[in-house]
Amino acid sequence: MEIEGKRVAVTGGAGFLGRHLVARLRTMGCAEVFVPRIEEFDLTRAESVERMFEAARPELLIHAAAVVGGIGANRGQPGRFFYENALMGIQVIDTARQHGVAKTVVLGTICAYPKHTPVPFREEDLWSGYPEETNAPYGIAKKALLVQCQAYREQYGMNAVYLLPVNLYGPGDNFDPESSHVIPALIRKCVEAVEQGRDEILVWGDGTPTREFLYVADAVEGIVAAAQRYDKPEPVNLGSGMEISIRELAEKIAALTGFRGRLVWDTSKPNGQPRRCLDVSRAEREFGFRARMPFDEGLRATVGWYLSERKRRADAPAAGR
Q1: How far is C-alpha 221 from the chain's CA centre?
Q2: What's the average model confidence in pLDDT over 87-104?
Q3: Any catalytic annotation for residue 138?
């Protein structure tokens, strides 16, 4: 699919990934990039979804909207995370079919994989067990959308593809302590500890789980490449193919933020999934995607952005006086 000159709708376009994706699409010469805001278009309501499609008239739909958060948020709101993610996705995909949208790209989640998936995670292992308990409701809700895409392709000939992005990070990430993921949460903890002169920070778990991370700009390129060049029913991992322990990650972030104190591991809190690392060969084979940002460089850019943003906000009241 040629994106230039097309009308595109990006659900979740005002979020972390969505803002980067929308900016990239606009540089590619789209006729219009429509971003439905929750204040006007509540995607859990069928009539609101219908109004969105009537307003946007998309030829390409990218469904990136999700109710997301870290382990704490998933544990605290499992019902909401299941219901809203499933309902949004099911209604958006079905309405795209009814409106004859030429191409639909649906973003799933790495949380859909079974808890004890062999490493590296291959797409064929997606159904070989139950997801890790703390994020299973979210993972299963999103995985249901893969089944919907495949069923609609079979029955209606719908060009709907499903991507499995790994944990994202980068400038503009969500640093809210109530809902952030591990990288922004650790960056904020370390920066605040330095500012307050504290000599230790508390980190959930024991530090042994591993994670894979994908820089947000790389994720955008993968999504765009799939929109342009992929048209098959099989899901596709989007990742970097790297693996790092939470302990090593925390030590890297501490060093980058100048925190010299102790990392205290709270083993009363859950570790989450034991390991995460993707087989990323299908994405490269099918649509030529390979992540380019070295992890240490991306981490430095993320820390730098957060420090700059923090300073900007601190200076804003003084500038307004």
Answers
A1: 14
A2: 98
A3: yes
